[in-house]
Amino acid sequence: MVATLSKIEQAKADLCGLDLAPRLGDLAAKGWESLDEADLTIRLKWLGIFFRPVTPGRFMVRLRLPNGVIRSDQLEVLADAVDRCGDQGSADITTRQNLQLRGLLLDDMAPLMQALEEVGLTSRQSGHDNPRNITGNPLAGIDPEEIVDTRPLVEAIQQRLLAADAPRNLPRKFNIAVGGAADSFLLHNDLAFLPADHDGELGFTVMVGGFFSAQRNELAIPLGLWLRAEQLPSFSLAVLRHFERCGNRQARNKSRLMYLVDELGLGGYREAVMAEFTQLGGEAFPHDGQHRVKRAPRSALGVNPQKQPGLHWVGLGVPMGRLDADGMAGLAQLARQYGSGDLRLTEAQNVLITDIPEASVQALLAEPLLQRYSPTPGALMAEAVSCTGNRYCSFALIPTKTTAQTVVEELERRLELPHAIRSHWTGCPNACGQPYMGEIGLMGAKARHDGQMVEAAKIFLGGDMGSDPQLAELHDKGVPLSQLADVLEDLLVERFGARRRTQAA
């Protein structure tokens, strides 16, 4: 008996979303209200275009930015697109080192796609059941501590996975990352390549199965294979081809890669992937999974010397990763004026300006825009990560970004902290804000307060991305937002060495 396809799987089987690209102008002319539901809510995501029910008529576009690298001229194109949206426009830096543009109209899409192509950008396959933006060391190529430059590797993987013969219909989304330094924590990805040695040769050990969801949270585990750098694109393709063919399509809540690993067993899964890889001409070596990633991600903020003598990068804190058109254009101008024109986006939702001569550093630090995007944010703001919240997402239970910024600013007024503390904020159990990775994790919830259900947050503690990685565990299942700053203040004092200021600033 043939299983009946779900609505989502049927929509994908009927038409690939990529086939909508030449029809964007016609779809816009008809109006978004007249679109087929599957086109509107599923297939457009193959082009990186997202309908948002909480902002009807306004769409989000998610870019692909391999390794988080973007040029000033590219950022200016994006700034112009956001600017045309007026008060509705904004952009978010994501935890996958890319950008999401918000507030766009369907009429904007065809010309935007053309503008993106002209400057070497794409939003293709950045959403739904596709391989998402591939991440790497944000300091790749400039890092004095790097083991390997991840930029060409990430770019090569993307090119292979977006080729015409690559999978276009995965059972679920798929996250890939390449580590390049001792602090490249990547175990929350479905497929992670970590620098590792084999018989005196530097290559990559393969980790599989990391993901966060409402049902289950796992860190990636060693697959038992080692690859040379040039093999990463073909191996990634082999993994995705097997996942496309064998992943669970009956239950979406059990469709991520780790469930397939569980089904086949680690050895069986490794054998199946190697058979696929062999068909592509690949050969891997057995490996114990040991790697050179040994410590938690360092802060990239502030003024830092590059590996290139006489050059620096300056890391700027972007509060909750939220940008507007003026901020984007301003950052692009600073990158061109003081550096090479290159910028980097980080998984901590901050931005780096690179290649700044030592003689220009002080002039950059004096720029007014750095009052807004500070190179020295507070100890909580520096490491605060947030999903978009219920302003744009119908799943979120709280206004995550505004709540996070308000609470963090209040806590920094009240407390002195001995070091930066990572907090991850997410609006719902889908965990897009990665609360389990934070020393403190916050998740939108509901709680009863004074006889009424109110907006609240679950608190998780203990996430560790160091040599002994740990996921944060539930500490409190529901703190009303009105009490959250007080509760977190006590936790920071009791557990993180914070000291209360004698007088609030």
Q: Could you characterize what this model shows?
A:
By secondary structure, the protein is an alpha+beta fold. Among the domains are: 151-286, Sulfite Reductase Hemoprotein, domain 1 (2-Layer Sandwich); 382-500, Sulfite Reductase Hemoprotein, domain 1 (2-Layer Sandwich), CATH 3.30.413.10. The chain is 29% helix and 23% strand. It contains 14 helices and 24 strands. The strands form six sheets. A five-stranded antiparallel β-sheet has the order 1-2-5-4-15. Strand 1 and strand 2 form a beta hairpin. It is globular, with a radius of gyration of 22 Å. The termini are far apart.
Secondary structure topology:
Blueprint: H1 7-14, H2 24-30, H3 37-41, E1 49-51, E2 59-62, E3 69-71, H4 72-83, E4 90-93, E5 99-104, H5 109-118, H6 151-161, E6 176-178, E7 191-198, E8 201-208, E9 211-212, E10 217-218, E11 221-227, H7 232-246, H8 257-264, H9 266-279, E12 285-286, E13 302-305, E14 311-316, E15 322-323, H10 325-338, E16 342-345, E17 351-357, H11 361-365, H12 369-372, E18 384-386, H13 400-414, E19 415-416, E20 423-426, E21 440-449, E22 452-461, E23 473-480, H14 481-496, E24 499-500
Parallel strand pairs: 6-7, 18-20, 20-21
Antiparallel strand pairs: 1-2, 2-5, 3-16, 4-5, 4-15, 7-8, 8-11, 9-10, 11-12, 13-14, 14-17, 16-17, 19-24, 21-22, 22-23
Helix pairs in contact: 4-10, 6-7, 7-9, 8-9, 13-14
